[in-house]
Amino acid sequence: MTRDGAERHVLSCYDIEFRRNHKNVLIILFSHSPNHHFKSIKFSADVLSIADTADTYFTRDAEILSAHLLNLVSGYDQVIAIGGSKGGHGAVYHAMLLARAIEKPVRVLAFSPVVVLHDNRNELPYTSYQRLMEEAQASEQLAADLRVATGVVTSEPPRNLAVFCVLGSGNRFDCVEVLRIQGAHIFTLPMRHHESIIPFLCDTSDPKAVTRTVLVLHDKAAEQADVAHLLEEGAVDAMIADLSGVPKQPGLDHLAGLIMTGNTGEIWLTSRPWQ
Asked: Which InterPro entries match (predicted)?
């Protein structure tokens, strides 16, 4: 049990926290770092947060994690998987596995997901992805895990699965990736950075809020590879300018609520549909 009342345990390489709110919907958060994110967000659902401490995009011992999730979701009417970047891959991957095994609705909310982990010719510039590719060259098991995961996330989804993707229209790498998810509902924001979840975590119409958010990321850049680009000269100002051009978006909790209730038509009012 954690200080904030969450139930916590370790399963293989996965650090798992569960917050029971006595709801009939389960939200599964796939964290994009070994730390748990979004703890301060009050979702109207029970919340399971998963951090991949091995940093393999939720592919190592996937069958162990999948079995755990399958057992847990039996008590819920609906499941929503949420993640960004590598967490977005984890959300799509394990939601696909769940949807194949159960009949109840499974939904995914993925922000700039990395989709293909095997034989990807998109040349993604993200540090953690490049490290994963280097590790896969030295590990046949990891390479096999990435190949299996890629096959799952790019396969035809079952009818009870719906995937909603949000990304920056100016990020050509992310635009290529999301088109590899069959049948995905794609929404774009006028931004070029990979961190497309940020507009749903802070008020982009408030310059001070945007600056604070980017500076917090900058402070973590030396320790977290995924935001290491903020250490480059001019990178902080560039991200602030990029995010400041994004219209104010609903909070992540509200966006998840739209997915939960099926009011997905309202999402078209908050971001531009894919052209």
From this structure: AB_hydrolase_fold
Give the mean pLDDT of the chain: 92
Long-range (24+ apart) CB contacts under 8 A made by 29-32 are 29/82, 29/83, 29/87, 30/58, 30/81, 30/82, 30/83, 30/87, 30/88, 30/90, 30/91, 30/94, 31/83, 31/87, 32/83, 32/84, 32/85, 32/86, 32/87, 32/88, 32/226
**Amino acid at site 130:** Q
HEC letters along 106-151:
EEEEEECCCCCCCCCCCCCCCHHHHHHHHHHHHCHHHHHHHHHHHH
Q: What is the pLDDT of residues 14-39, one digit of tens each?
A: 999 999 999 999 999 999 877 777 87
List the Cα angle 77/78/79 in 5-degree steps.
140
Q: What is d(CA 246, CA 189) in angstroms, rounded to the nearest whole number? A: 7
- The full DSSP string for 42-58 is --SSEEEEEEETT-STT
| pLDDT(230) > 90 | no
Q: Which helix (H) or strand (E) holds 10?
A: strand 7-11
For 143-182, b where at least 16 C-beta lie within 10 A, e where not — what string? bebbebbbebbeeebeebbbbbbbbbbebebbbbbbeebe
- Residue 3's pLDDT is 58
Judged by DSSP in three states, 63 sits in helix
Tell me the pTM: 0.94
Structural domains in the chain plus CATH codes: 7-197+249-273 (3.40.50.1820)
Q: Measure the N-to-C terminal CA separation of the chain; round to a whole number of Å.
A: 46
Alpha-carbon span 143 to 148, nearest angstrom: 9
CB 125 within 8 A of CB 173: yes
